[in-house]
UniProtKB/TrEMBL annotation:
Designated name of the protein: Ubiquitin carboxyl-terminal hydrolase 30
GO biological process, one term: protein deubiquitination
Catalyzed reaction equations: Thiol-dependent hydrolysis of ester, thioester, amide, peptide and isopeptide bonds formed by the C-terminal Gly of ubiquitin (a 76-residue protein attached to proteins as an intracellular targeting signal)
Organism of derivation: Homo sapiens
Family per record: Belongs to the peptidase C19 family.
Gene (UniProt): USP30
Keyword Metal-binding: no
GO molecular-function terms, A-Z: cysteine-type deubiquitinase activity
A GO CC term attached to the entry: mitochondrion
Lineage per the UniProt record: Eukaryota, Metazoa, Chordata, Craniata, Vertebrata
Residue spans crossing the bilayer: 6-25
InterPro entries, A to Z: Papain-like_cys_pep_sf, Peptidase_C19, Peptidase_C19_UCH, USP, USP_CS
Length: 177
């Protein structure tokens, strides 16, 4: 009978040692490279999450946003991304399409809701919404953002005029409405 107590004690010590060495990891595991992060559902925001996932699968749209937002890096040293829908959207779409490295397994898209509220779109995260309506709001807001940008360089902005002379003919594109 004494042997069973000794064997039980050794087994308990062995189990405790295994648990300490190979036990649960206290740090969050980093997302494996190449895996798409998820999106937090902030109430009834699954319509927004599905739209963001769909747009992140459109490389042409992401390229357009990159070209569109490139002016902010030229105009300002550090663009306030919380002001511009285009920069916020680009950041989220790049993270969802694994073009931007993040350690998070889950992304929080509440920054997009905050920017849309600045564009006067009122949304309660607890009411059901329509993905098509959100798509229309995003495209309309991007058009408004585009229309607010000056199309012609001011005559007294010598620095910008000098930079424009460095543009090669291949970089010049025409836009029609």
């Amino acid at each position: 009978m004494k042997n069973w107590g000794v064997i039980g004690g050794i087994a308990a010590a062995l189990a405790a040692g295994i648990y300490v060495i190979w036990g649960p990891i206290t740090e969050r595991k980093k997302r494996r490279k190449g895996l798409v992060p998820g999106l937090v559902n902030l109430g009834n925001t699954c319509f927004m999450n599905s739209l963001l996932q769909g747009l992140s699968a459109c490389p042409a749209f992401i390229r357009w946003l990159e070209e569109f937002t490139s002016q902010y890096s030229r105009d300002q040293k550090e663009p306030p991304s919380h002001q511009y829908l285009s920069l916020t959207l680009l950041h989220l779409l790049k993270a969802l399409s694994c073009q931007e490295v993040t350690d998070d397994e889950v992304l929080d898209a509440s920054c997009l809701l905050d920017v849309l509220r600045m564009y006067r779109w009122q949304i309660s995260s607890f009411e059901e919404q329509d993905a098509h309506e959100l798509f229309h709001v995003i495209t309309s807001s991007l058009e408004d953002e585009r229309d607010r940008q000056p199309r012609v360089t001011h005559l007294f902005d010598v620095h910008s005029l000098e930079q424009q002379s460095e543009i090669t003919p291949k970089q010049i594109t025409c836009r029609t409405r």
